[in-house]
Amino acid sequence: MDTRAPANPPLIDRFGRHVTYVRLSVTDRCDFRCVYCMNEQMTFLPKARILTLEEMALIGRAFVELGVTKLRITGGEPLVRQNVLSLFAELGKLPGLKELTLTTNGSQLARHAAALREAGVRRINVSLDSLRPERFRAISRVGSLDKVLEGIEAARRAGFEAIKLNAVPMRGINDDEILDLVEFAAERDFTVCFIEEMPLGEIEGHDRRTSCVPSDEVRARISERYTLLPTVERTGGPARYERIAETGTLVGFISPHSHNFCDSCNRVRVTTEGRLLLCLGQEHSVDLRRVLRTHPGELEPLKEAIVAAMAIKPKGHEFDLTAKPVLFRHMNATGG
Ligand code: SAM
Ligand code: SF4
């Protein structure tokens, strides 16, 4: 029997979890300053520390050759990165990649929706925390709801197969809009997903201990008006879904606190600096930028580093909203 490892071993970690999904952050910058994500005054990374789009394309290729089937482009706000469409076009051509997708705040989507669709993006996630202009501005600190709604309309016209809205419900801030957001999604045949706030980085003037709304509470509020039916449908990420009987709308819940999903984790992240993060809630990482800059343009050293990294993927996160955040990186620097 040949006991040698295959030339391209699949990405399986110590706990038998198969990594098939990579979230690639193309920038830590953003045109919003959402209260749960960032501080109002942020220092962003200098250009020299950020990967070029060519380096990111090579990382994407390495992962896909190692068996990854889903790539999500994220940030910061991915659509503020100059020329980012060229990266989508490059990644969209990779044989073996089943899904290329993005998470966006929607502010630049009106300009880019059609080109994204052409580059092979079939489904997108747009973050939307409020449907009230002034409140939207207060949550994002600088964003315009009109621009985002325009972006969402452009995405509908561009013919994406699925549009998912992401919302972070916060107590006393936007939790009275849960049903409005569900209705907005239902009217447009979108999916809506509610995310429990995670303790990534400290935010001045924002207390996550009091603002985080558990998924069960969100579910209970939706059940006051609709019938939620269980479904086993998944979209390849951490969200668990239920379907609204009356409208057919799929409602997702990402519940790192109330329903830990680490056992079935299939994901890793690459920050815009090229740090391969093995877990959203831990600091275990490998410096892919060093590999890339020691062996420019070479795929094999990159693949070796990625395979070796599987040995340090931790069992799970240890998020604790009652303690001071142990992670200093904010979500925008993590690749949410
Ligand atoms: N800028 C894009 C956007 O807002 O969609 C992409 C990056 S953003 C970091 C990705 C997702 O992470 C968004 O849906 C956002 O609401 C969510 N997010 C940011 N900070 C979070 C936190 N501390 N806890 C939970 N979700 C968070
Ligand atoms: Fe920007 Fe997205 Fe963070 Fe909001 S959640 S500040 S849009 S990166």
UniProtKB/TrEMBL annotation:
<feature type="binding site">
    <location>
        <position position="103"/>
    </location>
    <ligand>
        <name>GTP</name>
    </ligand>
</feature>
<keyword id="KW-0547">Nucleotide-binding</keyword>
<dbReference type="GO" id="GO:0051539">
    <property type="term" value="F:4 iron, 4 sulfur cluster binding"/>
</dbReference>
<dbReference type="InterPro" id="IPR007197">
    <property type="entry name" value="rSAM"/>
</dbReference>
<dbReference type="InterPro" id="IPR010505">
    <property type="entry name" value="MoaA_twitch"/>
</dbReference>
<feature type="domain" description="Radical SAM core">
    <location>
        <begin position="14"/>
        <end position="239"/>
    </location>
</feature>
<feature type="binding site">
    <location>
        <begin position="267"/>
        <end position="269"/>
    </location>
    <ligand>
        <name>GTP</name>
    </ligand>
</feature>
<dbReference type="GO" id="GO:0046872">
    <property type="term" value="F:metal ion binding"/>
</dbReference>
<dbReference type="InterPro" id="IPR013785">
    <property type="entry name" value="Aldolase_TIM"/>
</dbReference>
<feature type="binding site">
    <location>
        <position position="72"/>
    </location>
    <ligand>
        <name>GTP</name>
    </ligand>
</feature>
<protein>
    <recommendedName>
        <fullName>GTP 3',8-cyclase</fullName>
        <ecNumber>4.1.99.22</ecNumber>
    </recommendedName>
</protein>
<feature type="binding site">
    <location>
        <position position="36"/>
    </location>
    <ligand>
        <name>S-adenosyl-L-methionine</name>
    </ligand>
</feature>
<keyword id="KW-0411">Iron-sulfur</keyword>
<dbReference type="GO" id="GO:0006777">
    <property type="term" value="P:Mo-molybdopterin cofactor biosynthetic process"/>
</dbReference>
<feature type="binding site">
    <location>
        <position position="127"/>
    </location>
    <ligand>
        <name>S-adenosyl-L-methionine</name>
    </ligand>
</feature>
<dbReference type="InterPro" id="IPR013483">
    <property type="entry name" value="MoaA"/>
</dbReference>
<feature type="binding site">
    <location>
        <position position="164"/>
    </location>
    <ligand>
        <name>GTP</name>
    </ligand>
</feature>
<feature type="binding site">
    <location>
        <position position="30"/>
    </location>
    <ligand>
        <name>[4Fe-4S] cluster 1</name>
    </ligand>
</feature>
<keyword id="KW-0501">Molybdenum cofactor biosynthesis</keyword>
<dbReference type="InterPro" id="IPR000385">
    <property type="entry name" value="MoaA_NifB_PqqE_Fe-S-bd_CS"/>
</dbReference>
<comment type="function">
    <text>Catalyzes the cyclization of GTP to (8S)-3',8-cyclo-7,8-dihydroguanosine 5'-triphosphate.</text>
</comment>
<feature type="binding site">
    <location>
        <position position="37"/>
    </location>
    <ligand>
        <name>[4Fe-4S] cluster 1</name>
    </ligand>
</feature>
<comment type="subunit">
    <text>Monomer and homodimer.</text>
</comment>
<dbReference type="InterPro" id="IPR058240">
    <property type="entry name" value="rSAM_sf"/>
</dbReference>
<feature type="binding site">
    <location>
        <position position="198"/>
    </location>
    <ligand>
        <name>S-adenosyl-L-methionine</name>
    </ligand>
</feature>
<feature type="binding site">
    <location>
        <position position="265"/>
    </location>
    <ligand>
        <name>[4Fe-4S] cluster 2</name>
    </ligand>
</feature>
<keyword id="KW-0949">S-adenosyl-L-methionine</keyword>
<dbReference type="InterPro" id="IPR050105">
    <property type="entry name" value="MoCo_biosynth_MoaA/MoaC"/>
</dbReference>
<feature type="binding site">
    <location>
        <position position="34"/>
    </location>
    <ligand>
        <name>[4Fe-4S] cluster 1</name>
    </ligand>
</feature>
<dbReference type="GO" id="GO:1904047">
    <property type="term" value="F:S-adenosyl-L-methionine binding"/>
</dbReference>
<feature type="binding site">
    <location>
        <position position="23"/>
    </location>
    <ligand>
        <name>GTP</name>
    </ligand>
</feature>
<comment type="pathway">
    <text>Cofactor biosynthesis; molybdopterin biosynthesis.</text>
</comment>
<dbReference type="GO" id="GO:0061798">
    <property type="term" value="F:GTP 3',8'-cyclase activity"/>
</dbReference>
<keyword id="KW-0004">4Fe-4S</keyword>
<keyword id="KW-0408">Iron</keyword>
<feature type="binding site">
    <location>
        <position position="279"/>
    </location>
    <ligand>
        <name>[4Fe-4S] cluster 2</name>
    </ligand>
</feature>
<keyword id="KW-0456">Lyase</keyword>
<keyword id="KW-0479">Metal-binding</keyword>
<dbReference type="InterPro" id="IPR040064">
    <property type="entry name" value="MoaA-like"/>
</dbReference>
<dbReference type="Pfam" id="PF06463">
    <property type="entry name" value="Mob_synth_C"/>
</dbReference>
<dbReference type="GO" id="GO:0061799">
    <property type="term" value="F:cyclic pyranopterin monophosphate synthase activity"/>
</dbReference>
<comment type="similarity">
    <text>Belongs to the radical SAM superfamily. MoaA family.</text>
</comment>
